[in-house]
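ok so i was messing around last nite and threw this chain in just to see what happens. nothing serious, just curious
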Amino acid sequence: MYDLIIIGGGPAGVSAGVYASRKQLKTLFITSDWGGQSIVSPDIQNWIGTPSIAGDKLAADLRSHLEAYAKDNVDIVPDQLVSAVRKTDSGYEVTMQNGETATATALLTCTGSGRRRLRVPGADEYEHKGVTYCASCDGPIFAGQDVAVIGGGNAGFETAAQLLAYAKSVTLLQRGPQYKADAITVEKVLSHENMTGLLNAEIKEVVADGFVKGLTYTDLTSGEEKTIDVTGIFVEIGMIPNTEFMKDLVELDEYNRIKIDPWTQKTSTENIWAAGDCTNVKYHQNNISAGDGVKALEDIYVALKTK
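result:
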């Protein structure tokens, strides 16, 4: 019987794991992989304390940090997904895909989310060759270049605003007849002289020659097919939280993200906490996830040790 089971090997889970060991909580740490979404980024420039780091190096550093601190307090189970969690009389039982089970008093879910993929010809082939799903990771690489953002929600407009700081021009394409972002955000971003917004634009193909050089879309108003010249394509068409296995235990929002109390990271269910991109936080960043993991662990420690 563990004090705590942590699920997920990204910044949130690893940060919590390090703190769990330092506070000598008997912890089981389960992850299918390390590093979270940023493992695919060739150059991360916003991981605080490190001016530039590749995603696979960040993942390796996270793993080695936890392993160095785990000692007798944290048992690490790598290369395993959690398939089910159920409530027991004394806490929670976790079932892994290999069929093994473990129980703990408390549970911290840090399973993150995955980017909704752009499903058009060339999108997969030219990922990391101009197609990217992380502006904060890859944006500065495209300084002085013409780029496109796909997606007219808040995430798309926030990405566009970030890119306007260094890109030559930004074109945002929204499939529907209106943007989904907050009106004040839309107005502010579209007012920038280097910004263009296109409504009723259905993406058809990524144009490339070794690297991205353009984007073809259909103007749904006129039916005309058009191509814009861009060297970078930033996809912001939504996130898919990895929360399916928790849906019967905790309250989820309309996007299937786990609802948490931002003061403590507590969920709606006793002795279950969540942190990182699987939660309904407003902003999604490695640094934010790491901090939320620490915050959750601090609250878990107080909850378990002051009873």
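not much to say yet. The chain has a mean pLDDT of 94.
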